[in-house]
Specification:
Elements: E1 2-8, E2 11-19, E3 29-33, E4 48-50, E5 53-61, E6 65-72, E7 76-78, E8 85-88, E9 95-100, H1 143-151, H2 157-161, H3 165-175, H4 187-195, H5 199-208
Protein name: Glycoside hydrolase family 13
GO molecular function: hydrolase activity
Keywords: Hydrolase
């Protein structure tokens, strides 16, 4: 036995099939149910013989459940083992088969997929480090004084060349007594030559200096 369905629009064509060896006899078989009001005198409910099977195709409206049974003209009522379900009939101890079309034809709920928002990552541009020159190339400036000047914002030859000797003396005095002995009078001039890349002239100048003085 088999029960197949093919839905078209608001209806489903249901094909009821009984193999010849499953039939109680070779007598004609009727398909009776809610869809034909169980009328045994309706010739349209007789199943057709196709080869070694009995077949009946009927169109049923979607959204309902239909009860049915088979009736052999000489052996009586029998059930379809391929029914969707079984429910008690009005007669005690007898069940009817069910064709269930309650969910057929329902519109499928459209599940919206969550759209992943592409978060644009803000790429931080690398912060350019302030240019620093090697102030120790200036005669009279050692590592510690170079660090002091850099902390004061004078970390390049260009800035040093634009700083007055008086201001440099003030920075050294502020740094402590040990730095007041240094004389920064030539530092701006040396820094100017270094900034311009005039290393030969800077060397000549430094040869004449004594500790930057």
């Amino acid at each position: 036995m088999a029960l197949t369905k093919q839905t078209k629009g608001s209806q489903t064509e249901v094909t009821f099939t009984i193999a010849e060896h499953e039939a109680p006899s070779t007598a004609p078989i009727l398909l009776l149910g809610d869809f034909n009001d169980w009328q045994t005198n309706d010739s349209s409910c007789q199943m057709e013989k196709e080869g070694d099977t009995y077949v009946k195709r009927i169109k049923l409206k979607n959204g309902k459940r239909y009860e049915y049974r088979y009736l052999s003209e000489d052996k009586g009522w029998f059930n379809d083992h391929a029914a969707d379900a079984y429910v008690p009939s009005p007669y005690e101890g007898i069940d009817n088969g069910v064709v269930d079309l309650t969910t057929v034809g329902e519109k499928k709920k459209v599940v919206k997929k969550a759209v992943k928002k592409t978060v644009k990552k803000t790429v931080k541009k690398p912060v350019k480090k302030a240019k620093k020159d090697d102030l120790k190339k200036i005669e009279g400036i050692g590592p510690k004084i170079a660090s002091i000047l850099t902390e004061k914002g004078i970390g390049t030859f260009k800035k040093l060349s634009a700083t007055s000797a008086a201001k440099l003396e003030g920075i050294l005095k502020e740094a402590g007594p040990r730095y007041t002995m240094h004389k920064p009078g030539s530092w701006p001039k040396q820094a100017k030559l270094a900034d311009q890349g005039k290393w030969a002239e800077l060397k000549k100048l430094q040869d004449k200096l004594d500790g930057g003085k």
